[in-house]
Amino acid sequence: MRKLTFIAAALLALMFGACSQTNKQKEQTETKSMKTLVAYFSASGVTKGVAQQLAEVAGADLHEITPAQPYTDADLDWRDSLSRSSVEMRDKASRPAITAKLDDMQQYDIVYVGFPIWWYTCPTIINTFMESYDFKGKTVIPFATSGGSDIDKACADLREAYPDVRWGKGRLLNGVTREVLQQWVAALDGSKYVAYDQRTGDESVVYFTRDLSAEGLIKAYEQVNAKISGHVGVKLHTGEQHGPNIIPREWVKALIAKDLPDATIIETNTYYEGDRYTTDKHRETLEVNGWTFCPVDILDEEDTTALPVNGGKWFKEMSVGSHLTRYDAMLALTHFKGHTQGGFGGSNKNIGIGCADGRIGKAWIHTTPGQDDQWDIKEEEFMERMTESTKATIDFFGDRVTYVNVMRNMSVSCDCEGVAAEPVVTPDVGILSSTDILAVDQACIDIIYAMTADDHHDMLERIESRHGLRQLSYMKELGMGNDRYKLIDLDNGGREITAADAVKELKKAVK
């Protein structure tokens, strides 16, 4: 446990502005065009062929990692313990010299590094390449070809050797098709939407109703509440003072009265100086906004605690409000909308940011230590950090967590912006629920994409410009759920529909 008083003073210098409430922060979140490099070492030509395809698909520059002394067939004889490759791979300090060094590695944001698997790992010439450049601020993604081994040990060895590099998830690309490469590249780029027919894996179930009312909310929740019992926390964004777009209080009051009479709304203090920055101001805001019909627990009011992040790239643990572990189950009740930093705010954002405590956890997600810019972490890295925070919380609850997303009053702004939020121009849709966090957020995104160009223009611009779709692909990488699902229409006898069906006859938002 960590006492907040020990660190509050150190972080006060970072506390300026609200979450996307200033023009300065909005300007800082605008993205530039990302530039990609595919660098590869190929001894037999197999990896070269894959690298050429990958560079074409990714629109990337291509660079061959060329040994100063080319490998002969005898050098590559793995059966000969005295062959050059055998000797190099036994010597962990071996760094074969390379030629044709790149003049300007700094220009690249994403670097794919390809190689054949030798002795279950990457050839030592890859170490030479990694130690020849500064990869700070870049995402490096390994790929490999192999006669029989997988890439897992190579990726683990690279992460261990270069822990300060931002590593993407590696992949073995034996006999890969162009279509598979396109899907892989798109999933790693948070500005690229992956259509349903390009996804793979199992299907979950997502329930849908067009009934935007207390009755509709109750109906959606009751499809997914089988394992919600005991001391239940309802994770809800209660909003800044007089925020116009939050889920209506009367809906939440009716749900709690009918299905969750002993539940508690749970929140944390904010990372920015606003109406919910301190516990006292937060409680005042709760009163102003009318969240007085049931208990509200500010999870980090007293202290913080750490939950493990299993399989994380950025974190081994996440700091959350200490009260979180008092709960037996959780309902993530989410107002689905845009978000200045995350592109969109669904269940993932509600939990990942909303359960991280206001001084430690949120700082870990948003800010590189020592930076003057409180919001310097953006795009794919931000999405991944936020998602790992979510994973820590939902892993704690296991199957005792469920998700309801309300697609109503969907400004491109987060509810953190309160009355300063951008006007709503995206049509209201309905309410979705699932026991799968990825499936419910993915279904909301699919519904947005299924709208007409006029209806979804602003929301798509916000999502794609912030690279928010990386939330979805990273949840899938971390095994948090499925991006394929059956969408069940609760208004029409439980028949299965598509996202396109869900957006038929939408009423346009009043601009």
**Strand residue percentage:** 15-25%
Tally of individual helices? 17
Using only CA atoms, what is the Rg?
A: 24 Å
Oligomer: single chain
Broad shape: elongated
Question: What is the typical, i.e. mean, pLDDT?
Answer: 91
Low-confidence stretches: 2-32
Q: What level of helicity do the residues show? A: 25-40%
Number of strands: 21
Secondary-structure content class: alpha/beta
Describe the biggest sheet? 9 strands, mixed
State the distance separating the first and last CA atoms.
Answer: 48 Å
Strand order of the largest sheet: 12-11-10-15-18-19-9-20-21
Describe the structure using short key phrases:
single chain, six-stranded parallel beta sheet, disordered N terminus
Question: Can you characterise this structure?
Answer:
With 511 residues, the protein is an alpha/beta fold. The protein is built from 17 helices and 21 strands. It has helices at residues 5-12, 23-28, 46-58, 84-90, 124-130, 152-161, 178-188, 214-221, 249-259, 279-289, 347-352, 361-366, 379-397, 437-450, 453-465, 470-477, 499-502; strands at 36-40, 61-64, 66-67, 98-99, 110-116, 139-145, 166-167, 171-172, 203-209, 232-236, 264-267, 296-298, 304-308, 317-321, 329-335, 337-339, 343-345, 401-407, 430-434, 484-489, 495-497. It has a nine-stranded mixed β-sheet with strand order 12-11-10-15-18-19-9-20-21, with helices on both faces. Helix 5 links the parallel strand 5 and strand 6 (139-145). Helix 3 (46-58) crosses helix 7, helix 8 crosses helix 9 (249-259) and helix 13 (379-397) crosses helix 16. The longest helix has 19 residues, at 379-397. The protein is elongated. Mean pLDDT is 91; it is low at 2-32.
